[in-house]
Amino acid sequence: MPLIDRVESLQGVIRKVKRIAAMGQTGRSNYVDVTKFPKAGTSKLSADEMPEAPTAPSTYNEKMLANYVPVYVMLPLGVISNDNVFEDQPKMEKQLKELRAAGVDGVMVDVWWGIVESKGPKQYDWSAYRSLFALVQECGLKLQAIMSFHRCGGNVGDEVTIPLPQWVLDIGETDPDIFYTNRKGNRNKEYLTIGVDNQPLFDGRTAVQLYSDYMKSFREHMSDFIEAGLIIDIEVGLGPAGELRYPSYTGTQGWVFPGIGEFQCYDKYLEAEFKEAATGAGHPEWGLPDNAGEYNDTPGSTEFFGLNGTYMTEKGKFFLTWYSNKLINHGDEILDEANRAFLGCKVKLAAKVAGIHWWYKSPSHAAELTSGYYNLKDRDGYKPIARMLSRHYAIFNFTCLEMRDSEQRADAKCGPQELVQQVLSGGWREEVEVAGENALSRYDSNGYNQMLLNARPSGISREGLPKQIMYGVTYLRLSDELLKDKNFKIFKTFVKKMHADQDYCADLGMYNHQIGPLERSKPKLVMEDLLEATKPMEPFPWGEETDMKVDDFDGVLANLIRNLFSLFK
């Protein structure tokens, strides 16, 4: 056969391979579009603009559906402008339709405090978000709403700046201690210090009351979307980047990876609380750490985190217990308010915890400790958080699902894989729903396959529910780069594999995600309950690789063609 005929024949084989790969295990090549939610508000789209109706009903393998992990995509940070305007709606509509056609289950969006309540105390303007939510609904997607009580700007991936409400910042001009503060006295205006959670400094309201009133107003003004089943998750922002942590590492104060960060408890309110706690424990002479180094130090260069460091002493243990418990209590109190605000609604509450993977393999876990996660080899710092979340029936959302140890700097002793295994296992043992997201944008099969492995660490079960399975995965984030042909092609395969090679399923009950009315939080935990949860346990077994792999077919086939051509040279 002439060379050109051989190439044409090979190209025909390649096309067939691609078609077969796209069909998946169901053997069906047609994609079935979503059934729509009941409408809330006025439709923004004409009938001609709506996604095409399905040409045939979806069919599922019911046992395989038990392996279905829904996929959500985080919307751009500035989808609603600082001026509270939903700009470029046509572009967003086009992108949402592309996500829907790719089988994506829904989207996640930050609902910024600094935008909605910018005009003054209790002057809420939800109009732009209502327009966005109506469009998401018209495009047939579900919605996860983040109550974003933090500033946008200063963290990795922050492409826009959205400050806290100006009237809050004005209060900080006369009382700068409302902000987190490091030992040098530098203020961080990203999030209010937990030291003012119960201080009536904001026109007579405490910080917790600010958050509570905001959530109650959200429920009141978004009740039609909630009742229609559009909004399924309320993720409650509990710190910088919306995460339950202290702002121990921030680029605006000079931090660069993999610095250990700094403790953030030197505002006058937290200093007074620590002094009271130390005095109550019989040690009035104890003060806050003065030997824990600076943002970009390594553990070994400090007295606190170094070999036989302060963190191992009675004084160090007392401080770290106080520091981490303050964070857990902060999350507990605000989630209790969220539970009251959304009581009876068919939604799930959620909270996000940061994946602090650098220095995880060092004895002191310094970067985790400064962030508020008191996690050591002989002490689990994440299971107490999961236990707290369990009392509110809240989802434990964790980051850095895409990361592998081999991709990290060896000198920073990173352990993202071991960290994810520890945290997810602890959540499952505490019987909370565990969800997650990638920390950095990825468009490659390696990143997707790591996320797939973590979503079902023991693999697919063909006889029903797998031993461990994540409640959902959110991809960070929607962008022009994601929607480029090659990137989006791989992403669509990733979505299909998260769905266990099943069609998109609009009925949450079919994959055990039915949502009932939110019940009242269980009784508050006592300190002994939290301490009991710190006992370390081995993580569940994890596979070496996912059994639902995303293959970069273009790359594989390109290599195959090059190898075949080499035979004729």
TrEMBL record:
Top EC class of this enzyme:
hydrolase
Query: Which is a GO BP term held by this UniProt record?
Result: polysaccharide catabolic process
Where substrate binds, per the record, is at D110, H150, D158, K352, H357, T399, N438, A439, R477
Molecular function per GO: beta-amylase activity
| Ligase keyword on record | no
Under the heading Gene3D superfamilies, the entry gives: Glycosidases
The protein's UniProt keywords, in alphabetical order, are:
Carbohydrate metabolism, Glycosidase, Hydrolase, Polysaccharide degradation
Q: Which family does it belong to?
A: Belongs to the glycosyl hydrolase 14 family.
Q: What is this protein called?
A: Beta-amylase
